[in-house]
Amino acid sequence: MSNFNYTLFIVLIPLAMFLLLGLQGHKFKKLSGILGTTGLGIAWILSLITAYQYFFVYGNVGGVFKPMLAYNSVWLQMTETLHIDMGILLDPISVMMLVVITTVSFMVHIYSNGYMKDEQGFARFFAFLSLFTFSMLGLVIATNIFQMYIFWELVGVSSYLLIGYYYQKPSAVSASKKAFIVTRFADLGFLIGILLLSFNTKTFDFISLTDIHGPAIACGAGASFLGLSVMTWSLIFVFMGGAGKSAMFPLHIWLPDAMEGPTPVSALIHAATMVVAGVYLVARLFPVYAISAPQGLEVVGYVGCFSSLFAAVIACTQYDIKRVLAYSTMSQIGYMMVGLGVSHYGGEEGLGFMASMFHLFTHAMFKALLFLGAGAIIHAVHTNEMTEMGGLRKYLPITHITFLIACLTIAGIPLLSAFFSKDEILTAAFHNNKLIFFVQLFVAGLTAFYMFRLYFRVFWNKEPHYHHTPHESPLTMTIPLMFLAVCSIFAGYIPFSQFVTSDSKPFESVMEMGIAIPSVVVGLFGILIAFVMYKKETTLPDRISTGFSFFYKWAFHKFYFDELYLFVTKKIIFRFISRPVAWFDRHIVDGTMNGISAVTNYVSFQIRGFQSGQLQQYAYVFVSGLVGLALVILYAFVK
Amino acid sequence: MGLEQYLLMRHELVLTLITLIILIAELCIKGDNSRKIRPFAIILFFIATVVGFLPLGEGSLFGGMFQTNGMILIMKNVLNIGVLIIFIQSYTWLGNEENKIKVSEFFLLMLSTLIGMDFMISSGDFLMFYIGLELATIPIASLAAYERTKTKSAEAGIKLILSSALSSGIMLYGISMLYGTTGSIYFSEVAKSLHSSNLQTLAFIFFFSGMAFKISIVPFHLWTADVYEGAPISVTSYLSVISKGAAVFIFVIMLFTVFRAMTAMWQDVLYITSVLTMTIGNLFAMRQKNLKRFLAFSSISQAGFIFLGMIGGNELGMTSVVYFMLIYIFSNLGAFGVVSAIANRTGKENRDDYDGLYLTNPKLSLLMMIALFSLAGIPPVAGFFGKFFLFTAAAKGGFYMLVLIGVLNTIISLYYYLLVVKAMFINKSETPIQYFKSDGYTRLGLIICFAGIVFTGLFSFVFEYIRVYAFGV
């Protein structure tokens, strides 16, 4: 087992980079980007080695991928049985996540060297990136749910810092606050879930929690509340935390605003890694969900399904390219949740689990590519609005080709990676829940439509008047694009079912043509509509939007969810709950506290006479204290 | 009895050796070169500290007068670390012109007291204990009067020696009563013959008041403020950390071994005094404007918290006390280090002088903030874990009410610790302390404290390491 000791460095290198750049970054200036990138490069290589060693050399014991503890130590002992550990857990999904995170993060680091070149606080940016990478890695390798929670919060903090990177911009500041508060609120649920779960199972540890023959899973049958077992409730609460981080309906409102952060950050955090933490969390506890709380898993499935539809509809109406991508992310994460929601535990029945992880993997590649591509576009034309773009294919050839590949991938065109992963999710859904299947099929069409709407508007359509000719980005930015494009094409050929499955036993997955063909047809149909509407400038889109004016407006304003939340918080919570509480706080609580402090102050003023400086008085107090103490104790213990 | 058995006294022997070397070196070095003693002594003591960590077995010497085990070894090492930091921190101050002729005295006296403390911790009978105690006390009195030309320093020395004479007298009285009722001065013999008769209870209280004097427990604490204020800062930090720590260590050992038959009784004594100490220490600390005096009173209230760990009488209690002392050494010396760095440079030691310090000396302010947070027990710095385990130990012993009082007192202490933080970070000042660059030794001392505060909190193996050797009633 000792052969995985080096995995510690995967986590520690980003931390060291954060400390170095955070404390001494101003001395390095431009060098800080190179330093951060090199560090991440090493972590990336180590992750690849880990993946190779785990999947091909040591991990597979008798046909099952065993979870391994590369490192573990007790950090805080609560009771004999309940303790918080810090360690590194290697199993198929955590190793896969290591690869995903370090790959995307490394690419984003390289890309940022070009993209952030002229920004103030260049070193600060890289320091935060390293902090984020550290926290995210710590999250996925967590050996127990509490360690995960600690890193979960750290991820939230670093996301907050990065969204608010342009801290002079009021919109960025409010977006970062929004993201932090909404996810924090969700994490409250997570914490309640953790406490309930650990109270019932008497353990934080993932290995004993998810051991299907262990005592933890058997706890599920215990007490019930409102018809659901305590285990189900705790897992639903845990999922609430996951839904917050993964921007699932109705906790999605922070994600579009989070696009205020620099584009590389959106690619890394709000597309490829952090937002899938919720999916990872459910996958991590999957045996518990599947065996002792199937209702909890149903909740996951329906929430994912609805979010995916909801976000896809909004994405069709947005004009800010990053926002379109943000809703697209939300919709794709919905797919992953659906995959988990329709899965069962073990073997072929666990197809959904495998497909979900597979989609997470491919999605990370093509969505990072889309965001980085969008960054290159924004870099060239200095705007986010697609109404001010058009005809860019001539000016940005590399960006154009890579972006097209990504769009084709997400649309599910055969032979590209997402075709395989999405198809398997649909297959799993088809066999378990027809309703979810048809909704997801429809969403697949919508996805193809809104992505190609974006593609045609930006790269074809009518060319507006540019202030200066857009030019292709430097190599530091195009190399990651090309690399990720290659990944997006070929990632689908990895036989995922051989590596990542719900019970860690490899199985053969087969493609069902009866599902693959409709999904491809739907995708192509979506592209066709987008082609007709947006290839050239026509009045068709406007006519359609006025035709459906009510619904269009509704979707364009994101179904008024921001307004709804504002109404609820400002008009209801602030007025009817916060004000009385504030009054109580100000007058009763503060009053009591002020009273106590006044008394304390008064007493401390009165007793200052004891400290007179007179030695004989000190001796007097000493002796009388002694006598007093002796009298009290002797009185109590007199025999 | 082979010669190698004396290795059990390794700490004491090494220290004695160093003391003698420094004494001889002082005789050889003439006039202006006296300052060279400083690096020499620090290096020697550093070696002694490292040697202290070498493994050593258990055993006893001189027919049971001297004993040692794993826990005692850890305690001595903790003290060594503290003294090393103090030596490093006083480097600059000892280089001052007026201290030139008495540089080596500082080291000699301090090392002598340390030897006394080591013997005291290792003692197996009351005689050895008392000799160690006196050896640990008398040189400190002369250290307190180190700046003898200053009235306050001389006053501190005389006050310390007089009041400790009183406390020693009372303590000896207690010991003599113990001897009278049990017929022995050996810890093991005394422990067997204790049965909580009234006279023995009285004897314990007399003995306790002597210990309480050293740990500065209310109402035996009044000397503390004057002596702490008058003595040079290095000596003050020594008194508040090392001297107190050594007394705490031997006291917890004696409570758990010698007086174990009287557990219910001494739990009551600790209960009363710890409530008094936490509360009154806090109330006095609130009013202090002079930072030295302020730290002195806050250290009184910290001593009250230490009793919380002892009172449960369990293994966790002993572990938490030693662990807390280690953290307390780092935190308190960190705070004293900043105060002394500033006092050396500017002569200012009032809270108002620290207004706006963050703008001129951000690094010092951050260090001070972390040290104060650690003293107050704010997570995630080490002090939080120190207090956390003390409270856990008390709660485990069933003293929930006491824990509640302790928590309330923590909140009060937060108020005055934060006042200093507020002064540094929020208050504005027309005449802030100007920016200055500290020299290497001052920085080294502060960095060690900082690293200690951060690492003892983050890594649990320190705690686990201590836990291995702990024992309960």
- Please work out how many helical segments of chain B DSSP would assign: 19
Distance between the terminal alpha carbons of chain B, to the nearest Å?
32 Å
Query: Greatest interface and its residue counts?
Result: A-B, 36 and 38 residues
What percentage of amino acids of chain A are in beta strands? under 5%
Residue stretches of chain A low in confidence (pLDDT < 50, at least 5 long) are: none
How would you classify the helix and strand content of chain B by structural class?
A: mainly alpha
Spatial arrangement of strands, main beta sheet of chain A: 1-2
Global outline of chain B: globular
Question: What is the end-to-end distance of chain A?
Answer: 64 Å
**Any idea how many domains of chain B?**
1
Reading the helices and strands of chain B in chain order gives HHEEHHHHHHHHHHHHHHHHH
The largest sheet of chain A, given as strand count, sense and whether it forms a barrel, is: 2 strands, antiparallel
Could you explain the architecture of this structure?
The complex is a heterodimer of chains A (639) and B (473). Chain A has 639 residues and is mainly alpha-helical. Chain A has helices spanning 7-28, 31-58, 92-115, 122-140, 145-163, 170-201, 206-209, 215-218, 230-245, 254-257, 263-272, 277-284, 286-292, 294-315, 321-341, 351-381, 397-410, 417-432, 434-459, 475-490, 513-534, 540-547, 549-556, 561-606, 615-637; strands at residues 60-61, 64-65, 68-77, 83-90, 224-225, 228-229. Chain A contains 25 helices and 6 strands. In chain A, α3 (92-115) packs antiparallel against α11 and α17 (397-410) runs antiparallel to α19 (434-459). Chain B is mainly α and 473 residues long. In chain B, 75% of the residues lie in helices and 1% in strands. Chain B has helices spanning 10-28, 37-52, 70-94, 103-122, 126-144, 151-182, 187-193, 198-215, 223-230, 233-257, 263-287, 291-311, 315-346, 357-360, 362-376, 382-396, 400-425, 440-458, 461-469; strands at residues 59-61, 66-68. Chain B has a two-stranded antiparallel sheet. The interface between A and B is large, with 36 and 38 residues.
